[in-house]
Amino acid sequence: MAELIFFSGTMDCGKSTLALQMDHNHRARGRGGVRFSCNDRAGGSVISSRLGLQTDAVEVIATTDFWDEVVRRRTTGLRVDYLICDEAQFYSPEQVEQLARVVDEMGVDVFAFGISSDFRTRLFPGSQRFVELADRVQVLQVEALCWCGRRATHNARTVDGIMVVEGEQVVVGDVAMDAGLEDGGDADGKGQADMLLPAVGYETLCRRHYMRRVTAHGANLMASRDQLLPFDVDACLWHGAN
């Protein structure tokens, strides 16, 4: 029987890699499927993995109706046995309900991949609806790591290296560890004004350092200072930790 499965985890836990692998496995067995994505780091209409894997996909926008997407393909003779839905946290609750209907009434498997909570530790509306409706919710076993080496449990947003907990829920930023440029600027230069824009980034942190608001950037700043006390004062030494 068809299932709605939500694969969840923090950044860097291999969600997009698993999505591409599952798509490959099902296609290799003769099944027909459609890949969907939304706000992928590599741009529109693509599913990309930090390992370098990448393939085309249908971009999900506010007006996307998954029921219509499947019906249109099937009425033109295309086989649709499953859907791969990456970056599913950005889908609306209504779109998640459409996916549940596709599973129940059309017998199409839906494999959705997404982050559960945002940089404020609040559930994304789409992720919340997946948790409420999915036949199974699977937490991915590949553990993302905090800069300290502990298991990362939270996604943090940074602006110029400093963690923030306020702002729009969806802001596309750089996720590269060594990135220092805002999306739209590059090393060749797009104009001095672009280079002066705040650099929005994301990184994964353990609960301890998320609560203390100590990012990798802050840890590097502290490491460059002389620490005379024999205990951990990382939250006290960095001005961004409140």
Quick gist of this model?
This protein is of the alpha/beta class. It has helices at 15-28, 66-75, 93-106, 125-133, 192-195, 207-212, 216-223, 234-237; strands at residues 4-8, 33-37, 46-48, 54-56, 58-59, 82-85, 109-114, 136-139, 154-159, 162-164, 200-205.
Share in helix: 25-40%
User: Looking at the chains present, what oligomeric state does this protein adopt?
Assistant: single chain
The biggest beta sheet is recorded as: 6 strands, parallel
Structural class: alpha/beta
What does the overall shape look like?
elongated
Integer-rounded radius of gyration: 20 Å
* Rounded average pLDDT: 85
> How do the SSEs run, as a string of H and E?
EHEEEEHEHEHEEEHEHHH
